[in-house]
Amino acid sequence: MESEKLPFESGIFLNSGFFHRTEKEVEVSNVARKVLGAWNSYESGFRIILLCFFVFTLSVTIALVVQILYGKSEVALNGAVVSDERICTDVGKTALIRGGSAVDAVISTVFCLTLKRPQSVGFGGGGFMLIHKHGHSEESAVLNFREAAPAALVAADLSKAEFDEGKAGLLVGVPGLIAGLEAAHSRYGVLPWADLISPTSQLFELEHVGLGPINSSRGFKFILDEISANGAGGFYNGTIGKEIVAAAQARGGVINENDVSSYAASWEEPIKLSLDESFHVIAPSFPSAGPAALHALGLLQRKGIRIGSMSEPGAMQLSVHALKLSLARFYRLVNLVLGDADFSGNASDADGAMMEEGTLNADLANIPEDLLKPLIQEPVLPVSPNRYGTHVAAVDNKDIYVSFVSELRATGANRIVLPNAAFELNSALRSFDKTAALSANSKSDLRNSAGPGKRPASLATPVIVLPSKQLCGARLVTGSRHVGSVLQVLLRKMFLGDITTESVEKPRWYLGKSVGASGIIKENQDINNRGLVLLGPYPSVNLIVKVNDSISAHSDSRTRLEISVNISELLWSEHRVMEMEAGQSTAKMWWKTFKRYRVSVFFPAVAMYMIYSDYSKTQRFKRENPEAFKELNNKSSVGGDWLFKR
């Protein structure tokens, strides 16, 4: 038999006299129904979010497992670029992000520097590039694009040219920069050649009105377009090559069109030094100062100094004298024994002469024990204010390491600018030995004397340090236009254990052929009068350090000028990526995306749901009607106020 319902359980009696409720009770009842409905809606929505979160997490986990078991290597290597100009560094990073190699990044950065730092690097200069492919092949190569002497040069004329403005053209060597960049791209480039130049062309269009007289003319843009379309041939064989010849000859030079058109960069083998049985250091041979850098490090090792075991005062003191002896050995060998290796025999013989045991032991005897005292005995002065050089370093996701150094040495009365003011020529032939002799009987043995096609000695050197035992151990990429800067940065990073920033930023010392005031080269030329930016006193030296897959990089702030941000940098900032993550697998990117956005997107989404859902209406009712809310809690049959205080 159907059970009898009470009157108030039957809907027909709700508004009759059998079951009477006050208006207040009806209002509270309606609110209770709304609250219960809001809560049910809130719980339902929250379950949906949790379900989506679980499905997404499970999908990422499955993708990671599949990638590990069946995919390519999960190791995602980062890349880095360092240079003296922030915007040019970003241009290089953009090349990496687009899938380019470290060589592509360096080339793109260097073209940008020709626009932003024409006093440091330009189409009229030359230099060296050191490249290493880390990992399986362990291939290392040196690209020598040092400026070359013209065929008609007479050595005796150089001694007069440095003091005669009308003969300044004799100091101009055939520029090697463009030939070097093209040669590097031919072997290691990935991106199209024109794509590496286009960022500089865009920057020129954005800011050429505000540039100095050297790179603000349309001649600069013409050269960029010519090189972009025709490569090095467009630079050496066409109108530009003829303008180089005309400008040099107008100042007494003997360079001709055949000298320019026949120039070629040369690939060479690097030299190596095993350091502390844990690392080996690679650098270019002569005519760079790579042998001097390795010789100085060898002296420190022979002295019994081990990596990380040296106090700073002793390290600085010993490094000064090690560098002094190494430079003395370098000058002697480069002038008397070797010079340009293409003209004076086997480079490995001279490299061995600097690193052989007898040479190191003999030089070691000239470093007495008392030099380890925390005082510098000789009047070594702060680094030279020479600003005519630059260094660029890059590492890509294929573990290719590149170190690039270049200099112009176009100073004072020796400065020659092309008629269209597009760039200035080098004075590299000043680096040939112009003295009558180093000793009474050595005149006939001078090898760094000027000669047709020869490339003069340079104090610039790129350096790469690699681990001997652990493939993923510390790797360093650095370099400078002066070997002393390189040595001191390596000393601080490897022997003293400084962090990357301190290794570059701490004070450095400059040594010429002798130590003391006579050895300090001060070149306070009319830089401001030339319309160029007057930069800090430190030669360019930058550093990239990679340990496992982590990279730290730093550019010396004393070579940068960041007083204001111009319009080109503001526009270019749209393309800047401060931290590069290239070449990562799909699963890796999913995981990084999840980690990066799970807090910043998921939880705010829950909060937004709670704010704009029906649950928020309950909270608003509580604020606006506190007495009714309290009464509802007291009379509600759903269990008190636990519902509203969650």
Give the name of the CATH superfamily of the largest domain: Gamma-glutamyltranspeptidase, small (S) subunit
Based on CA atoms alone, the radius of gyration comes out at 35 Å
Q: How confident is the prediction overall: mean pLDDT?
A: 71
Strand content is 5-15%
By CATH, the architecture of the largest domain is named 4-Layer Sandwich
GO cellular component, one term: plasma membrane
Keywords: Membrane, Transmembrane, Transmembrane helix
GO molecular function: glutathione hydrolase activity
Pfam families: G_glu_transpept
Please provide a written account of the structure:
With 646 residues, this protein is α+β, with helices and mostly antiparallel strands. 43% of the residues lie in helices and 11% in strands. It has two domains: 7-71 and 588-643; 80-430 and 442-567, Gamma-glutamyltranspeptidase, small (S) subunit (Glutamine Phosphoribosylpyrophosphate, subunit 1, domain 1). It has helices at residues 23-70, 86-97, 102-116, 155-161, 177-188, 193-207, 218-236, 239-249, 257-261, 290-302, 312-337, 341-344, 347-355, 357-364, 483-495, 500-505, 567-572, 586-612, 614-624, 626-635; strands at residues 80-82, 126-133, 139-145, 266-268, 271-275, 279-283, 389-395, 400-407, 461-467, 475-480, 541-547, 550-555. Helix 1 (23-70) runs antiparallel to helix 19 and helix 10 (290-302) runs parallel beside helix 15 (483-495). The chain crosses the membrane at residues 48-70. GO terms for molecular function: glutathione hydrolase activity. One of its GO terms (biological process) is glutathione catabolic process. One of its GO terms (cellular component) is plasma membrane.
